[in-house]
Q: What sequence folds into this?
């Protein structure tokens, strides 16, 4: 419910939503009206209200990706009024609240737009290309044993913090969708940097960066042009410094590479 806040007056909105029956069908924007939307609702809760109205009217509900609804799983993937995850920086779609919009607004909702992310249905896209990049080298195969006491970990705090910052990438693909070249450099570099900074990741350091960059190219992602839209739209604030680190890792690996 809206509560007693005078600014929490329910809103009526016009939604222009991308509808596409399957990956082979032609898609188009269709217009819907939603009424009495509480500003305290999340964006996905508003979508649930719309789908309930569609079901009551005998219309196929809108398909969209979601899971945790807590901003950590990386499933929600909507372009909202031309912005990945919507108008609020550092926020996933599921954590975006309707108070960021105003009564009477028209909201355009589209799926990620990138060649390596084919549309499956409506707002759902296939992001398995990111999984294949991860599988190409984003792992540690050595046995690291049990969890040691915190004060026994031989990793300087500065390095540990940088590795943790890179590890916060949730793999949502907003960086790809925001990039005019559909580059996956920010995602890939975060996974590479996370492991390259840690002792247990040193063993496969060279093959990791070679294999993951090669897989990124195979999947059809574009090159980085250093515009920075990826970092600007990343909901967890992954830094462009990771791309610089990945480039250094790649050049270093190629000097002694066996994959010439």
A:
């Amino acid at each position: 419910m809206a509560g007693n806040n005078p600014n929490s007056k329910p809103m009526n909105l016009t939604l222009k939503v991308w509808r596409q029956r399957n990956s082979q069908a032609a898609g188009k924007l269709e217009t819907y009206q939603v009424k009495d939307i509480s500003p305290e609702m999340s964006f996905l809760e508003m979508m649930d209200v719309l789908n309930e109205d569609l079901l009551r009217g005998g219309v196929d509900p809108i398909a969209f990706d979601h899971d945790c609804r807590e901003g950590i799983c990386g499933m929600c993937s909507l372009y909202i009024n031309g912005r990945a995850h919507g108008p609020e920086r550092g926020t996933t779609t599921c954590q975006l609240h309707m108070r960021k919009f105003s009564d009477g607004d028209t909201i355009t909702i589209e799926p990620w737009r990138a060649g390596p992310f084919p549309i499956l249905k409506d707002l759902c896209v296939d992001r398995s290309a990111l999984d294949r990049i991860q599988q190409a080298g984003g792992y540690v195969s050595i046995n690291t044993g049990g969890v040691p006491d915190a004060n026994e970990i031989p990793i300087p705090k500065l390095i540990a913090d940088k590795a943790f910052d890179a590890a916060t990438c949730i793999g949502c693909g907003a960086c790809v969708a925001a990039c005019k070249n559909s580059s996956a450099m920010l995602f890939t570099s975060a996974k590479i940097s996370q492991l390259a900074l840690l002792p247990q990741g040193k063993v496969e350091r060279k093959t990791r960066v070679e294999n993951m960059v090669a897989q990124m190219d195979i999947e059809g992602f574009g090159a980085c042009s250093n515009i920075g839209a990826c970092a600007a739209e990343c909901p967890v604030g992954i830094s462009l410094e990771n791309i610089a680190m990945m480039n250094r890792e790649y050049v270093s690996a190629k000097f002694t590479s066996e994959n010439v």
Observations:
- The beta strands are 11-19, 28-37, 78-80, 83-84, 106-111, 119-121, 124-125.
- The longest strand covers residues 28-37.
- The chain has a mean pLDDT of 92.
